Structure formats: C-alpha cells, structure tokens
Amino acid sequence: MTQPPLIPPSKAERYYLNRAMTDATILLVEDEDHIASLVQLYLKNDGYTVEHVADGVSALAAADRLQPALVVLPARAPAPAKHA
User: Fold this and answer.
1) What is the pLDDT of residues 49-59, one digit of tens each?
2) What residue spans define the domains of the chain?
3) Beta strands 25-29; 49-53: pairing state
4) Distances (CA, A) of 10 to 7, 13, 14, 15, 29
5) In 3-state terms, the chain is what percent helix, strand and coil (to 5)?
6) Which of 19, 40, 42, 53 sits 20 to 30 Å CA-CA off 73?
7) Distance CA 56, CA 27 (A)
8) What is the pLDDT of residues 1-26, one digit of tens each?
9) C-alpha 39: how far from its chain's center?
C-alpha cells in the first residue's frame, strides 16, 4: 500500500502554527544560572515566553500556576521532596 504524498502546509497554516507555538509558555527548571540564561536566550529569541525556576518544589508551584505547554528539566534532576 502506498502512502499519500505529503502536502506541505500553506503559508497561512504555517503562520498560525507558528503563532500557536510562540504564544506558548515554557517552564525551565534549572539550578545553574549560566545554563538557564543561555537556554532562555535561545527560547526567547524564537518568540517563546519562558519562566525559570531553580528547584523542583518551585517547578510544581509554577506548573500549577502557569499551565505551561512544555517543561524543560535537567537530565539528572533530583526528585522534589514530598510536600503536603
């Protein structure tokens, strides 16, 4: 069975897809300020709104408050301490 040809999105579709993504908020969880600054720079240059927190407990609170489209975590992030 052959697959149908891929049809690239129109100019208008690309515009609205791009707008939908760049209006998104990204939650960045990073305890190293120099790394967070660099990641924020790249994401903000691409039009994203970036909220930065430094630890897991703050990340949980920010995620509840912001409802971000994406959460960026360090590869070896420790689990947050249990909270009430």
Assistant:
1) 999 999 989 99
2) 23-72
3) parallel
4) 9, 5, 6, 9, 35
5) 45, 15, 40
6) 19
7) 11
8) 676 667 777 777 777 666 666 668 99
9) 10
| Side chain identity at residue 72, one-letter code | V
Q: Residue length, the chain?
A: 84
Q: Which structure tokens are listed for 42?
A: 């790249």
User: For residue range 40-81, what is the model confidence (pLDDT) as tens digits?
Assistant: 999 998 888 999 999 989 999 999 999 999 999 988 766 666
Residue 28: in which H helix or E strand, if any? strand 25-29
CB 75 within 8 A of CB 31: no
42-49 contacts at long range (C-beta below 8 A, 24 or more positions apart): 46/22, 47/22, 48/21, 48/22, 48/24, 49/23, 49/24, 49/25
Distance CA 50, CA 43 (A): 7
